[in-house]
Amino acid sequence: MPSAGEALRRQARRVSRRRALRGKKAVLFGASVLAAQVKDELEKHGVPVHAVVDNDPDKIGRNYQGLRVQSPEEVLVPFSDDYVVIVVAFAAAREMLHQLETLGYRKRRQAFILTTLHLDESLPAFVRFIPHLLRGQITYRKLTGGNPGSTLFIAPYAGTGDMYLIELFLQSFVERHAICDYRLAVTSNACAQVARMMGESDVIVADQHALNSVISYGRLIRARPTSIVVLNDGWMGAPTEWLRGYKGLNFEKMFRHTVFGLEDEIAPRIPVASATNEAVLKLFDEQGLVPGRTVVLSPYANTLFHVPDAAFWGELAARCAERGLTVCTNCGPTEQPLAGTRAARFPLSLGPDLVETAGYFVGVRSGFCDVVSGTASRKVVLYDREGRFYKGSFHEYFSLSAMGLGRNLREVEYGDGDREDVVAEVMEGLT
Amino acid sequence: MRLRKRYDIDNGAYVVAFVEDDQALNEVALAHVRDLVADRRARGVVVATDQQWVVERAAEDPDGILAVEVLANRDVESLLSFYELYQFTPRLFFVSLARPYGNRLWQMVGVNGLTLDDLVCLSMYRIRGWAGQGVTCA
């Protein structure tokens, strides 16, 4: 079964080839995280998105992937045959289509629905689901070694920030429930690195679909609460998902309360970073970086939102160099360091020690910022001002300070056109 | 399948299943049916329940309710079991803090001032415009 994102991309590719779209202005109806993938896919296939509309009052007026979200009526009234509307919808697809029809837009002529595949209640659909359950049973047995008394923790999402948060509370949960024997299953090597860095010994990397099938199997057998524990605040339709960002329920609080059921008084277990790690010192030596006088720039975030452009980073790197700091770019194997900076390529597990040794860090908010948040170095973390995550702004939901993880930290929101101010604020944060 | 056909659920309607003997929760959920209908621009909802109290209250205030379907307890359990396997429709909502299996909403009552209204409107009904005291419509 393809993931929701893959399924939508496939449909977007199909729609982009339709004759009805030729010479028309595409309007995306639905400003969701998944719809961003549709926009990306449409644009890759020569269908630029002219406008984005949504019925959600929280989203209207905000920036979404470089466009301002408007209400459907604002854009689509009066009816214009120049528009073709791409609806990205889940539960409310029919209502959205009905809304468009009342405005004069007809299905398959001016309106196309893209939705994730879901199984219905028919017998053929149920039969199609059975192999998934069998796979779940087999995978569960394999992962637990057939030991019915053990606990299988599943971290189904590949975000390193999620993994870091999980590890802040996992041991408290284990102690509270007197769990003696457990294994942690994750879906990426990066997550496994974070987990091991934070002290986990029995970590296994597994395919996400296989882990989803284990979760389904657990539902089928109504597994006891500590035999299969899903370490996510909204996985596979969990209703807690929709509380994200509401009434100050940020990233940390969602994990603390929905995943672990831990009170606010339980302190997170923040790992201590070291400035004397030999592997890090060797890397510093090789790259000509000065311990305590180096700024690590982290521009290549795997983030949901708009990131500052190369000009911003270039100017920031120059200003840091003027101040007498050596400057390096945190980059992956295929990424290039920013102009005038040195490449810092290192395993994620070395991240905290590297930033601790450097003394300074500037990065776009991503999972890496969580991972290095416990270091004593001076840090500036950047948040897209227009970014929304469920009921909160990007900053409200992911603020490290609000999560209690903000040691020596300055948080800066950025938007289009305020480069100079943001650079100045970042430099102030590094002082 | 029977409910889907009888009430033409796919055509702008929803089923709200009241599966708990929790009067406070059920009362809140019934009170917000009209918010659900308004948010989704829906025709209405079908209330499905094995709770006599819910049947009576729904009859007193039928705004937004297309019909009340009285189910036997074993039918409610079967519906839950099936839904736990996979979410076979996005048009079915359960009024419960603990079910279907894996629902941890009960852990959230009172956290950061979360009320039953919040949990019903945001998590159970997924009303996008819910802002604490009512629905903000676009």
Short précis:
The complex is a heterodimer of chains A (431) and B (138). Chain A has 431 residues and is an alpha/beta fold. In chain A, 38% of the residues lie in helices and 18% in strands.
Description of the molecule:
The complex is a heterodimer of chains A (431) and B (138). Chain A has 431 residues and is of the alpha/beta class. Chain A has 3 domains: 111 residues, Rossmann fold; 137 residues; 152 residues, 3-Layer(aba) Sandwich (Rossmann fold). In chain A, 38% of the residues lie in helices and 18% in strands. In chain A, the strands form 4 sheets. Chain A has a 6-stranded mixed β-sheet with strand order 3-4-2-1-5-6, with helices on both faces. Chain A has a 6-stranded parallel β-sheet with strand order 13-12-11-14-15-18. Chain A has a 4-stranded parallel β-sheet with strand order 9-8-7-10, sandwiched between helices. In chain B, helix 2 packs parallel to helix 4. By secondary structure, chain B is α/β, with parallel strands linked by helices. The interface between A and B is large, with 47 and 41 residues.
Throw out a few tags for this protein.
heterodimer, A: 431 residues, alpha/beta, Rossmann fold, 3 domains, 6-stranded mixed beta sheet, 6-stranded parallel beta sheet, 18 strands, 38% helix, globular, B: 138 residues, 4-stranded parallel beta sheet, 6 helices
Strand order of the largest sheet of chain B: 3-2-1-4
Uncertain spans of chain B? none
The coarse silhouette of chain A is: globular
Number of helices of chain B: 6
Order of helices and strands of chain B: HEHHEHEHEH
By oligomeric state, this entry counts as heterodimer
Strand order of the largest sheet of chain A: 3-4-2-1-5-6
How many strand units of chain A?
18
- Structural class per helix/strand content of chain B? alpha/beta
Radius of gyration of chain B: 14 Å
